[in-house]
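Handover notes (outgoing to incoming on-call)

Open items:
1. 3-oxoacyl-ACP reductase FabG: sequence verified, structure written out, both below. Nothing else pending on this one.
2. Nothing else urgent.
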Amino acid sequence: MTARRVLVTGGNRGIGEAIARRMQSEGHRVVVTSRSGDPVDGLQVVACEITDSDSVDAAFAEAREHLDGDVEVLVANAGMTKDTLLMRMSDEDFSSVVDTNLHGTFRCVRRASTAMVKARFGRVILLSSVVGLYGSPGQANYAASKSGLIGIARSMTRELGARGITANVVAPGFIETDMTAELPEKTRSEYQAAIPAKRYGQAAEVAGAVAFLASDDAAYVSGAVIPVDGGLGMGH
Ligand code: NDP
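3-oxoacyl-ACP reductase FabG structure tokens:
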């Protein structure tokens, strides 16, 4: 296993935190971002607001100091929801979710890729969702933002594949985190009934797929969408 320099956006809690701890346990050097930059036990945190290119730039510069070199593995995990039915969805409901999940990821990927091209090595892992491929009532904004990530990963694969850079997407299903804790109980049980595994996933199960994509074993995997959803999307 080659130890890498890893940045996980939104790695202070939920899925991002599980990814960061898994990567750290495998011997990688890891920095996580959160909006506040507040300390998190056992993790190196830098502040980053992914809707702001200057903030992204500053976070990468600070991460470079902590990691003692440029980011080799970017896990673009930060994201948000603002659910409401299409006919009630305001322009702001739509654009704020797209600006965070899609444009925010683009800002991080663009910032990371310069050093990856120079190093002729990079692993880019984007956190999409089963909803990006499956659709979901009340989530037109979120689904649009998450399916757009596949376009970014596949374009990167074509553009930068010859430079030793891979770009892949992990598409989790319903995972126990703050994000799904917000769902009404009726919605939670309906979703659970539809999942072939008949349970919600754990953040650590998503971290396993991310760890594989960052590993030496995944050097020839790029442009892929890896579902971690208990079978809900049937492999998409
Ligand atoms: P959480 O809501 O638990 O955490 C979201 C993370 O994103 C936090 O670290 C948060 O930072 C960060 N974040 C949100 N908005 C911004 C922003 N504008 N700038 C910088 N950071 C931001 O989410 P999960 O752990 O559940 O989800 C992680 C990722 O996985 C998301 O992209 C989500 O869409 C995706 N996903 C989650 C699923 C689930 O079932 N939970 C299913 C499928 C996909 P802060 O703490 O500072 O607010």
